[in-house]
Design goal:
272 residues; alpha/beta; 3-stranded antiparallel β-sheet
Length: 272
Amino acid sequence: MTDDDWLRRNRANWDDRVRVHARSDFYDLPGFRGGACTLRGFELDELGDVSGKRLVHLQCHMGQDTLSWARRGAAHVTGLDFSGEAIRTARELADDLGLAKQARFVAADVYDAAQALDGERFDVVYTGLGALCWLPDIPRWADVVGGLLNDGGVLYLAEFHPFTEVLGDDGKSVEVDYFDDQGETWDEPHTYTDGPPLAHTVSVQWQHPLGDVVTALAQAGLRIEFLHEHATTLFQRYPVLERTGPAEQPVFRFPEGHPRLPLMYSVRATKW
């Protein structure tokens, strides 16, 4: 499969998802317009104060996390995503919230971020949950991150743990090769939110071992400050998981007595 094939399929799939996501309860755009923050508590704690900083959010989808950082005090935020439909929705949100001067949104593939942003450098590069599985080349991504950061700038990455892809749907049996680095083609009629079926159902995804991500960042000139593995996740990945936490931002964990497994991870790294 060529770069054009997977990129074309994934872009069409995500353009299609936007029309569903923008109307979904899962993304709850009316609630966001009303003041809700979409960032998770551990992200706010681990990245810390962004007041006065210039932040770029790679693979920003409809821009809610991006704009949440603006609401948290970032001097200027930039969201970048390869879906033109997602960027259009993000710009509309920024206008609705009166943040158009504080936030901009750019339609471009993440690997082309340096050119799309005219070589601009940032204090923070943020990448949220569910982003890396859409990228085939993690060292190339890490080089992009390094190139976007000012000296002393920080990458903050929060992701679903790759170990979750090893287990079967029951959350107990090991069924998938952790080190399989071949792209997998999926044909799924629905996205992960409520809503109608998709017209463009095919996508291509990759799994990346945790060591590959950390090593790529180190080789791109970033110093790892921490790697945290989390025993909770944001959705019921397996039937055995139990819901806990506040109603507005629930998390899911294995029940008491079940061996705990890593479900998410987060990395903070500084450019030398």
